Amino acid sequence: MRPHEHEAVAVAIIRHKTMGRDAIACARRFVRFKAAKAKSLGERGAALVEFGLLAPVLLLILLGTAQFGLTLNQFVTLTNAVSIGGLQFALSRSDTTPYTDAVNAVKNAAPSLKPASLTITLSVNGANCGTDAACMAALTNNVGQPSQVTATYPCNLQVMWYNFAPACNLTSQVTERVQ
Hints:
- The chain is an alpha+beta fold.
- The protein has one domain (3-177).
- The chain contains 3 helices and 6 strands, in the order H-H-E-E-H-E-E-E-E.
């Protein structure tokens, strides 16, 4: 054998041993990969189960927040409408239809609320007046005294088939001096 051939044989032997080790290492990596893949599939299933348990709670929070926002909007609308109706009522001393004008002012200022569901009461100096004639007499005889407009509207706090406040009513009241 020539010297170069001897080196080539040695290199071939080393390469053969190295290939054997590489094949074993590759097989080990494949087994580890299979185990890791099986583990990740189990983890994905656990995440799906956790999401299934938490999704109704998250949905309840989301829908509850939206429903509370709608109810708060109704309360702000009612308060603004009562303020407008109270001002109209306090300035209606020389009007022939003060009750009707004040009630219509409240209903017109709250277009997003159902007018049939509004309960509006008017009073002058603590005495309720429910007709135009009674309110006109009370306003004329009580200049400078307090006039009061109160409105009540039913609210709905039902979220996902559960009513959190079954007897909920929004109430707003404004007091103005009769002009």
